[in-house]
Amino acid sequence: MKRLPKTLSLFLTFLKIGLFTFGGGYAMIPLIQRETVDHKKWISDKDILDIVAIAESTPGPIAINAATFIGYRVGGFWGAMAATVGVVLPSFTIIAAISYVLAAFQNVVWIQYAFNGIRAGVLALIVKALWSMYKQSPKGIFSYLIMFGAFAVTAFLPVNVVFVILFCAAAGIVQALIIGRRDKR
Amino acid sequence: MIYFDLFLTFLKIGLFTFGGGYAMLPMIQEEVAAHSWLNQSELIDFIAVSESTPGPFAVNIATFVGTRTGGIFGGLCATFGVVLPSFVIILFVARFYQKFKSSKLVAGAMNGLKPAVVGLIGAALLSLSVTVFFPAGLNMAVFSTAQFYVSLGIFAVAVVLAFKKLHPILIILLSAVIGVIAGMIGTA
Question: What ipTM was estimated for this complex?
Answer without folding.
Answer: 0.87
